[in-house]
Specification:
Elements (H helix, E strand, L loop, with lengths): L22 H5 L7 E6 L2 H11 L6 H14 L8 E6 L4 H7 L3 H16 L4 E4 L4 E3 L11 H8 L3 E3 L2 H4 L3 E9 L3 H12 L4 E9 L44
Parallel strand pairs: 1-7, 2-3, 2-6, 6-7
Antiparallel strand pairs: 4-5
Length: 247
């Protein structure tokens, strides 16, 4: 397991000095200190996330929140004692369609659990701090490069003064390639955050195509001029969203 992003080490780092980092984190260091997850996105975990996210079984958020709290507790030794908790936001159109943001519900329930298990750890939920500027299409079925392009420049901080010099805990339900949390963490760091940490409920297995680049393309490729929904997926591998996480 990668010590930075908690991903698999199927693609080893190119030198022994980075033996505990995946190749992606060595070649393109993420803009967050560390990412942790409770478990793998498979089996009962996958079913439970789908129950909350798509079937709107809100009671599931309580148990899933306790699991997320256990993941966050992995950071207790090294993370700052006071953190601003920022859920990955949905675009307003997606929020209107779904009716709730699963990352916010998970964060809220996790903090309730941590208030009991780690009372000295000071968390402040800041659900409106991060904004999703455009309606990005689902990450399901996109290649790693397409995922990066899909969310690049998609996030903005509503009030930079509120995050300046603050330590941020970024929350999401699933992490696959890390494109979404990288983009969000970059926006927070750009607004002056002292550090960004990431906790997700599940970590999905990431797969790379032949010749797939690990290099972060934030400054390599020109900004796509307004990605329209469906454009990226037209060239993506044909994977059912039932079997692929959306982040």
């Amino acid at each position: 397991m990668c010590a930075r992003c908690s991903g698999s080490l199927d693609h080893p780092a190119p030198d022994s000095d980075s033996a505990f980092l995946c190749r992606a984190c060595v070649l393109a260091p993420p803009p967050f200190v560390r990412a942790v997850a409770f478990g793998l996105y498979e089996g009962r975990m996958r079913s439970a996330i789908h129950a909350l996210k798509y079937d709107r079984l809100h009671p599931a958020a309580r148990q899933l929140g306790r699991m997320l709290a256990a993941a966050i507790a992995q950071l207790a030794v090294e993370a700052p004692a006071e953190m601003l908790v920022v859920p990955i936001p949905l675009h307003r159109s997606k929020l209107a369609q779904r009716g709730f943001n699963q990352a916010r519900e998970l964060a809220r329930n996790a903090l309730d659990s941590l208030a009991t298990s780690h009372p000295a750890w000071r968390f402040t939920l800041a659900a409106s701090t991060l904004m999703r500027l455009r309606a990005t299409e689902s990450q399901a079925g996109l290649s790693p490069r397409q995922r990066r392009l899909n969310v690049r420049g998609a996030f903005s901080v509503s009030d930079p003064a509120a995050v300046a010099d603050k330590h941020i805990l970024l929350i999401d339900d699933i992490m696959t390639t890390g494109a979404t949390v990288r983009a969000a963490a970059r926006a927070l760091a750009g607004a002056g955050a002292a550090s960004v940490w990431v906790a997700t409920l599940a970590r999905a297995h990431r797969s790379y195509g032949v010749g797939e680049s690990f290099i972060d393309e934030e400054t390599k490729d020109p900004e796509p001029p307004g990605i329209e929904p469906g454009v990226l997926s037209q060239t993506a591998s044909m994977h059912s969203s039932i079997h692929q996480p959306s982040f």
